């Protein structure tokens, strides 16, 4: 009987070969893929954890990874412009574009935490994440696209219903920050936990099609992910509730989805885009706004130099802290995305208290 036993090294190689090869763009995407795929996926992430997707450049080795991948998961062309052309040139569509998924909530850069996105959700549930799950349990679909039915009541659900609303307010926001924010669709969709459920479901579907033998495992992983995310969502909401009205500035306008979801009081951003340093006049204007709004904290980011933040708060009692919108220090696991939300909430709360 022993002559039929396979060497351990061969068993390992067979196990490795059985994994689905998934190329991801950034760390938060990797977190969701890891949670659903578990040990059945091999993840290769293109953008280094210490780098920013805003100024990433593809190398020949990255193009080879795309070509060899079973699946590519990215946020969208608004964020990872470097992926648009290479993916279009691949033979056959094998990617998931998060921003293009039905059910993904897309906000506009001019949108504030007080606008209709939250009001709508509060009309339809208790706004702690469980209203989405109850909706699915009632209908038995578990497809993560509860947003479809909800948004169809209010618009065409392709993002344009939001556009009509925002065109009424174009050119200003309630804080008077003309010129201090982006325009168009905000690509930082991973900072809304409801959007994470939408991607998780799509990843489950695609992995199940690629690897039918592990379909049940992917389904179980998805259900576990949703449960853990709901727990984290409630915990984060409770932690941020005492500081949700405290005014602050961020380094660049990347946090709108998170801030809208938890109704925080962002008074503005230092720079339009993280690659561009603000000029002397902009710095002077921001210092004036910091004083006028009684700002408690100015946040920097680990991917960019905080020197400009130090200049802004010099001579004031304003505190500073680091917000990490990519979760660079977290190890990939089934719980890394919920842990990412909790860590980000802790970064906010520590500086705003």
TrEMBL record:
The keyword Glycosyltransferase does not apply. Keywords: Ion transport, Signal, Transport, Zinc, Zinc transport. Gene3D superfamilies: Nitrogenase molybdenum iron protein domain (3.40.50.1980). It comes from the Bacteria. GO terms for biological process: zinc ion transport. Residues 113-185 have a biased composition (Basic and acidic residues). SUPFAM superfamilies: Helical backbone' metal receptor. The keyword Zinc-finger does not apply. Transmembrane segments: none annotated. Residues 112-189 are annotated as: Disordered. Residues 1-18 form the signal peptide. One of its GO terms (molecular function) is metal ion binding. Belongs to the bacterial solute-binding protein 9 family. This is High-affinity zinc uptake system protein ZnuA. It comes from Marinomonas fungiae.
